[in-house]
Amino acid sequence: EKDGHDWFMRKEIFEQPRAVADSLLGRRTPEGHLHLDEMRLSDQELRDVDKVIIIACGTSFYAGMVAKYAIEHWTRVPVEVELASEFRYRDPILDYSTLVVAISQSGETADTLQAIRHARTQRSKVLAICNTNGSTIPRESDAVIYTHAGPEIGVASTKGFLTQLVACYLLALYLAQVKGTRYGDEIDEVMHQLEAMPDHIQRVLDDAASIYDMAEAHVDTRSVLFLGRHAGYPVALEGALKLKELAYIHAEGFAAGELKHGPIALVESGLPVLCVVPPAGRDQLRDKMVSGIQEVRARGARTICLVEDGDDHITPYADEIVRLPRVPVLLQPLVAVVPLQLFACQLATLMGHDVDQPRNLAKSVTVE
Ligand code: M6R
Asked: Taking every annotated instance into account, which residue ranges of this chain make up the domain SIS (predicted)?
């Protein structure tokens, strides 16, 4: 049942190329238009949307952070991302022109469910992004985009996350199509880029052995920092969450630009700092990231840099390099998170922890 793997989590990490491909299947008409099966919101209702609020918890929340970048870029509609557990307690501003997007792999998370119930009392439309057919959150939503990850057994979300990202990109492109934004022309191109992602993810997986070696060198580590910028920032947060959940070690993700505003005080000799470097096409972003890496290294950090193939800019400042396929910045989370999943899974295994059932955690959190 684990296909020869030691853990469901590892099996699920390796299923990601297929899960992403399945989540992209059948989304286009023969004429090349995007078509989302259970959209159920009319084009007019979507054209009336003037604000999107994404609500989710944990890993799904990080998918929401990436969605904000994609939706705002392709549609120019403002997006807020909010932790479901905080949402209804702050008297959020909602009305019929607000689209609330609930992201939940299980579809049963109580915090998220209560948040969408609140949104609906305020007449907002609710769209669920969910991996579990017929679960409560999609049943109580106006529309659904189902991800096709297949059942996710490991408590730590992996293929659930990647397929949520795919659904978020599809939603962003669909909104661009319906609203006729100037990025509408890019839809075809982005769909092709998305369709190439399963192969890119596979290439990262083919190199798993080098990540496992890296994990081996970190079994005594008690603390790890993760840095990212732009779409790499949620990846940093997700990498840190995976380490906390599975290896029970202190791990924190930061937006690299925030370092100098405090967190850099944490850096001391030998501290591993994992850096998600933006693609070279985004030079300004990339260069800023490089200076952040230099800063922590000058203070003794051991830098592990996730860098796209062919970018040698970073080499002088990296103690270790993990190569990523060359992809556009908005899609980079789909490949950049994979080494971080492998790293956490392997480190926890080497430390003797139960990877599929980490202590104190449940697969779906049905209490608020
Ligand atoms: O089923 P959901 O997507 O609503 O779950 C949300 C979080 O509980 C979940 O992502 C959690 O953070 C995972 N254990 C992360 O690996």
From this structure: 42-181, 214-358
112 C-alpha vs ligand 1 centroid, how far in Å? 11
Catalytic amino acids? 363
Q: How much is the pTM? A: 0.97
DSSP strand E in 282-340: where? 302-308, 320-324
Cβ of 332 less than 6 Å from ligand 1: no
Nearest protein CA to atom 7 of ligand 1, as residue: 58
Question: How large is the angle between the packed helices 333-350 and 159-179, nearest 10 degrees?
Answer: 170
ipTM confidence? 0.98
Using the Cα atoms of residue 39, residue 40, residue 42 and residue 47 in order, give the sign of their dihedral.
Answer: negative
Ligand 1 atom index nearest CA of 364: 1
Band the pLDDT of 184: cuts 50, 70, 90.
Answer: low
Q: Is 156 in the pocket of ligand 1 (CB under 6 A)?
A: yes
How far is Cα 351 from Cα 246, in angstroms, rounded to an integer? Answer: 10
What residue owns the CA closest to ligand 1's atom 12? 58
Rg of the chain in Å (alpha carbons): 20
**Residue 164 beta carbon below 6 angstroms from any ligand 1 atom:** no
Sheet of 223-228: strand order equals 250-255, 223-228, 272-276, 302-308, 320-324
Cβ-proximal residues to 230 (8 Å cutoff; 6+ apart), any chain: 69, 278, 282, 285, 329
**Could you read off the pLDDT of 244-284 as tens digits, one per residue?**
999 999 999 999 999 999 999 999 999 999 999 999 877 78
Cβ atoms of 87 and 121 closer than 8 Å: no
